[in-house]
Write a structure and sequence with these properties.
Elements lengths: L1 H9 L7 H27 L27 H30 L4 H26 L4 H25 L6 E4 L3 H27 L19 H29 L3 H26 L4 H23 L2 E4 L6 H7 L1
Antiparallel strand pairs: 1-2
Length: 324
């Protein structure tokens, strides 16, 4: 009943073209990735408790307020990051409206609805992170949830561009798809290890001596080595995948995406190495988080290209007659 009423309401909106749908889907990716990067900016500027409560910024106020213990800069950075949530929410709402109005297939609609649902969940996780005083594991969960949203948004973009009346086409053999999935698992492990490094590292998100942030009590060198080894495994799996795809033959789309993934992972590894040997400067932390989102987008795009939905054209009448 509610779904029918929603569809009738959406019908009053202009019918979005496929190009418009793809632009909105791209905006969803950029907004989800962007708020991950701005979250890193909040952390390295020690602005994580610039708004010390949630959903309000200060008790009794949703906006920054002059406060002796909270610098105005920290308030501005954290509040600006919270305001970006509205841009993320807007993009998520627009993609739902677009695909529902265009009567896209169920798969696309489900992916679209995951965007506002995930955004709300992310906001709640962010609130828990603030209310917990930036406990390291809540920060880790917050970042990993953002990375998951970037992955889903990338798959949504791929699905939006496929024809609803097409047929599924498997572009590579099943073992190579499983190898791609395994590389995604290695990527996930690398991300988790990276958040643990963050949990033990120097950028806690707040430097107040009156409210010290609890940190992960594991030697950071140990965590860095684990993080690096998982990254090497991730890269090795991608290289092995490349040899496998070259042996069986691959489409141009898959080749381009594979090259982009490997290049992105190598660039991300270089940033991480420089970051470690220069004692984790704030600017490189932000670039490293941005690189992580780029790796996720590239890997998700590669995964999506291995099973696509293609338009099937009906044979000409003469050809059909000859076949009969």
């Amino acid at each position: 009943m509610l779904s029918r009423a929603f569809v009738r309401l959406v019908d009053f909106l202009p019918l979005p073209s496929l190009r418009v749908q793809r632009i909105i889907a791209l905006a969803v990716i950029l907004s989800q990735a962007g708020i991950s990067v701005t979250g890193a900016i909040v952390r390295v500027t020690s602005s994580g408790l610039g708004c010390p409560t949630w959903p309000q910024c200060f008790p009794g106020s949703f906006t920054p307020t002059a406060h002796a213990e909270v610098p105005a800069l920290h308030q501005a950075v954290e509040f600006s990051n919270r305001m970006l949530t509205f841009a993320v929410t807007l993009c998520a709402a627009l993609i739902v409206l677009a695909v529902v109005q265009a009567r896209r297939r169920r798969e696309v609609v489900v992916y679209a609805w995951l965007m506002p649902g995930g955004t709300v969940l992310q906001a709640v996780i962010g609130g828990i992170t603030v209310r917990s005083g930036l406990l390291w594991w809540t920060v880790s969960v917050h970042l990993l949830a953002s990375m998951l949203m970037v992955w889903l948004a990338t798959l949504l973009f791929a699905k939006v561009g496929e024809p609803d009346d097409g047929v599924d086409v498997v572009q590579v053999p099943a073992p190579l798809r499983w190898l791609t999935a395994l590389s995604a698992v290695a990527m996930t492990g690398t991300l988790i290890a990276g958040t643990l490094v963050t949990g033990a590292g120097p950028h806690a998100g707040d430097k107040s001596t009156e409210r010290p942030v609890a940190r992960l009590q594991i030697e950071i060198v140990t965590l860095v080595h684990a993080h690096a080894e998982l990254l090497v495994a991730y890269l090795a799996l991608l290289v092995g995948l490349g040899f496998g795809l070259a042996a069986v033959g691959m489409t141009r789309a898959i080749r381009v995406r594979l090259i982009v993934v490997i290049a992105t992972v190598c660039a991300q590894a270089l940033i991480g190495i420089v970051q470690y040997f220069t004692h984790v400067p704030a600017a490189l932390v932000v670039f490293h988080v941005g690189g992580a989102t780029a790796c996720i987008v590239a890997t998700a795009a590669l995964w999506a290209s291995m099973r696509t939905r293609e338009q099937v054209t009906a044979p000409a009448p003469e050809a059909a007659a000859r076949a009969a």
